[in-house]
User: Which sequence fits this backbone?
């Protein structure tokens, strides 16, 4: 970990810089995949399954019996853990429901706003080494609470044509009925354009490798909504001398093990705790199965010591971390000053892992400084708001002349006429 | 207007198709503008002002005295109209404020979600024939209510170096202090990258021509948030025999006058009202100053007659119109079934123009079918949600083992350790 003491404000932008996601070179390859799926549908998907997943599929859809057998074979304590996590996630996201608020902006001018589910949504769950069944909960539960009528899950099959049973159990638990064995950029293409087997959707959610990221970027330019722009996962920890350095180290490492490009930052007013945490990192990293990955991530990681708390907080807001752990005695006071972050963890007994899995908050969060303008996934990510208005005859008599005046000044006489023709009729009536 | 009676469901996707926005050919030209601003900052902006706006500027910032003189010279009834509109817009958007809801998902596991303003936002207001001061209100008011600390407005100058006084009055009214005379793709570049004169922002709002649209598309790929994808404005009207055909025609024309590519659709169960409305359109269009534009838009417009109300509603939801006028006796009942629309206008005395200017709802809305997954601009468009959590020692004792089990199953042992190391300490304490 590179250590910096009291960096000047001019150096902050460079310190807050994440590695650039180099995706341009994938443009041709991914566009080719998208076009083949657009043109040949299921036939293209079968070819890609053979090429990338090394499996000859006859059908993409996971059957009822595959789901039943996954549910039956999964370890009972793991099932119970997933059920507890699901219950917490459901509680937190259900609390986000909003009532319709109807107001009269003027007498006779009623305006309101209603949340309505996005009808068709797609969830992508990557395969590979770690089966991300937790992401099935994080995306499937708000989709169900929102009331999306069609929820499609795509995930790549293993080379024996199966899907990880924990993924199937989690999907079944949250009521997802349509699960397809399709991975990579071709899954994003299927969700965006639809094929004979796989229905197209209005919005696509979920993490993935750089092919998936590039594919989501391209289809989002074509009008399909996506959850948010992607980047490597990251944590920033604020620690003081009351923090247990072994906890700080464990939290840094739980981020570092994600990938060699994970971003790990420790900031403090105390050089002591930083030094202690680093010693602990060096000790603990050796115990990790993914220690090579974690060590790689640590190489580009950063610790910054400040001599002033307000500067420290300004720096954190400029960095805009995806995950922010505030492991200090005054964590509540610091939390009040957080302007830019995805999700914030307060105190010594609130590790990021809690939110990654089971406390109830969502783990799909803005990386790469996007927290300056983006929020994590929530119930609202699966809904849109429609505004409504109803104006009475009396209401239009009051509001109408205002609109006429403004439309005329914007030189839109057709707009003005749509009011004038009504006012004329009202005046002739009275 | 092309008329279709009882189209088969297979033909709906083609009927719902909007003209493709052809922006690819602009790629090179717009990237060149963006790169020049990124590289040369203000110097490039001065050159573009000379080239595109035909004006030699010495400074971009609108001065206090320019604002004062605009406020002084503007017609008093127009000022009053703008003030009334602003007051309605403020009431509607202020009602969207949300309280923090803190819940315990398990004993000792507290989770909450806080709305925080996006710190720095940019508003683009096009120049040209119609000075869109109404858009200044629609974007500036929620920005102020959200509490954005920096609101930057860019708008192109006239060839005499001035800015339309109604735009300056509206900006001053909503408290925007930083107004710059910069237009087109170069304004988007300045807001995205910053120059010596113009600060960079986290999110860019506002309409514009195809250069502006392309520039917003490009910078959004680079991590600057934008309000929503753009497309030509559109209205769909549902009318029955109780509707006044002259009102229906005036509403169709108020959309058609926007641009030759405006989308105008009339649907009904009654061929009679459609025929009457068309006759009225032919009469009223001749009275419009923008009649050539309106006639051009009408060429590609559509009327569809259905023999079944549920089919009619399904079609409307598939079309997902930006503006939906329900001018029928049962407008409330139909409104309940609207799943996809930007903003909905109910009854005979609620023309779209009311919402375009002054009723209080926002007029920045999803076009091109994007209403399937996107919402119009609201208070939330200027905020992001940050989640927080705080877990007590007792809370972690209950939640911790759940996380350990799940992390292990996802093969993320570093995640598990961040829990285990804490539980170990807690167990040694007790």
Assistant:
């Amino acid at each position: 970990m590179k250590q910096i003491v009291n960096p000047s404000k001019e150096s902050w932008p460079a310190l807050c810089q994440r590695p650039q996601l180099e995706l341009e070179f994938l443009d041709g390859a991914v566009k080719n995949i998208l076009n083949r799926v657009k043109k040949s549908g299921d036939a293209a998907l079968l070819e890609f399954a053979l090429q990338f997943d090394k499996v000859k599929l006859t059908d993409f859809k996971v059957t009822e019996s595959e789901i039943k057998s996954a549910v039956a074979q999964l370890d009972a304590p793991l099932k119970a853990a997933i059920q507890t996590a699901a219950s917490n996630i459901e509680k937190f996201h259900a609390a986000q429901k909003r009532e319709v608020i109807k107001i009269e902006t003027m007498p006779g001018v009623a305006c309101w706003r209603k949340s309505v589910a996005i009808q068709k949504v797609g969830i992508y769950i990557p395969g590979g080494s770690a089966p991300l069944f937790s992401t099935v909960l994080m995306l499937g539960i708000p989709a169900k609470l929102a009331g999306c009528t069609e929820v499609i899950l795509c995930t790549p099959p293993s080379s024996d044509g199966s899907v990880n049973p924990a993924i199937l159990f989690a999907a079944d638990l949250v009521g997802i009925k349509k699960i397809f064995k399709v991975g990579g950029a071709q899954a994003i293409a299927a969700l965006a354009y639809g094929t004979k087997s796989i229905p197209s959707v209005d919005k696509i959610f979920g993490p993935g490798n750089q092919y998936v990221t590039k594919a989501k970027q391209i289809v989002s330019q074509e009008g399909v909504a996506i959850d948010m722009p992607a980047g490597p996962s990251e944590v920033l920890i604020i620690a003081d001398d009351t923090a247990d350095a072994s906890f700080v180290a464990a939290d840094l490492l739980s981020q570092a093990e994600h990938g060699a490009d994970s971003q790990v930052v420790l900031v403090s007013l105390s050089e002591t705790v930083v030094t202690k945490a680093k010693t602990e990192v060096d000790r603990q990293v050796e115990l990790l199965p993914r220690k090579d990955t974690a060590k790689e991530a640590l190489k580009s990681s950063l610790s910054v010591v400040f001599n002033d708390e307000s500067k420290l907080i300004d720096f954190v807001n400029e960095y805009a971390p995806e995950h922010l752990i505030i492991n200090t005695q005054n964590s509540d006071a610091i939390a009040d000053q957080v302007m830019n972050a995805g999700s914030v963890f307060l105190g010594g007994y609130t590790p990021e892992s809690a939110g990654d899995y089971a406390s109830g908050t969502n783990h799909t969060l803005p990386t790469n400084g996007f927290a300056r303008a983006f929020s994590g996934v929530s119930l609202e990510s699966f809904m849109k708001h429609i505004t409504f208005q109803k104006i009475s005859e009396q209401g239009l008599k009051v509001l109408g002349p205002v609109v006429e005046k403004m439309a005329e000044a914007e030189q839109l006489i057709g707009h003005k006429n749509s009011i004038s023709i009504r006012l004329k009729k009202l005046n002739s009536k009275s």
